[in-house]
Amino acid sequence: MPRDSTATREQLLLAGEHLFARKGVDGALTREIIARAGQSNDSAVGYHFGSRRGLLGAILDRHMARIEQRQPPGPPPDDLPALVDDLTRPVSEELRTADGRDFLRIIVQLAGSAGMRTHDLPNPLRGSAVAGQLQALERECVKTLPEPVALERLSLLISMLTVCLADRARRIDEAQLVLLDHDDFVANLVAMLTAALTAPVRRTLNHPDT
């Protein structure tokens, strides 16, 4: 790809990240992305990414590639707290960069489509180390929980993780108060997520009619 084309593609990626994070993956307009990227050609997104959805996919792919590079070596552990830690720390590193924080503010919008309840993980999760960690978490959870409860908790874990990271990303970007430094924040988040997975099951009480 010619150098100027590569530069344009990068500008569109950065512009897409910024606007998808702040205006929403459905709210950001293609013309706004093109304008923020400093482009005058209305077909720039289509030329480089095929479509607006293609741009979103390229953003997700490049950040998932960074997260994959941070994964600990070896197979997933068979210990629940260690698994939650392995899942949380690599993605939490995205908090350290501006484009990483944009990514975290984007994925929270997509958390409901993670597919844990149906065992149908979407790209770019499919085949990733993150997918392997989620599968390992499911194996550990079903040892002590009914499968429907385990899947529900894992779905909620994804929502909790992405909401917490997106909120901190936004607070950092807007120079708002954060109470913990990065390492303490991540350690506290891991502890909270682990506690959510291991909480006792509360049975539904059937009250007699009165």
Total number of distinct structural domains: 2
Taken as a percent bin, the fraction of beta residues is under 5%
Class computed from helices, strands and strand pairing: mainly alpha
Q: What is the overall silhouette? A: elongated
Radius of gyration: 19 Å
Per DSSP E runs of 2 or more residues, the count of β-strands stands at 0
Count of runs of 4 or more consecutive helical residues: 9
What is the H-and-E element order? HHHHHHHHH
Largest sheet: none
Amino- and carboxy-terminal Cα gap: 74 Å
Give the quaternary arrangement of the chains: single chain
Mean pLDDT: 91
Fraction of residues in helices? 55-70%
Nutshell version of this structure?
The chain is mainly α and 210 residues long. 63% of the residues lie in helices and 0% in strands.
Verbal overview:
This is TetR family transcriptional regulator. Residues 30-49 bind DNA. Residues 6-67 form the HTH tetR-type domain. Pfam families: TetR_N. The chain is mainly alpha-helical. The chain folds into two domains: 3-60, Arc Repressor Mutant, subunit A, CATH 1.10.10.60; 70-198, no CATH class. It contains nine helices and no strands. The protein has helices at residues 3-23, 30-36, 44-49, 52-69, 80-92, 98-107, 129-141, 147-173, 182-198. It is elongated and about 60 Å long.
Mind sketching the topology for me?
Elements: H1 3-23, H2 30-36, H3 44-49, H4 52-69, H5 80-92, H6 98-107, H7 129-141, H8 147-173, H9 182-198
Helix pairs in contact: 1-2, 1-4, 1-6, 5-7, 5-9, 6-8, 7-8, 8-9
Pfam family, one: TetR_N
GO molecular function, one term: DNA-binding transcription factor activity
InterPro entries: Homeodomain-like_sf (IPR009057), HTH-type_TetR-like_transc_reg (IPR050109), HTH_TetR (IPR001647)
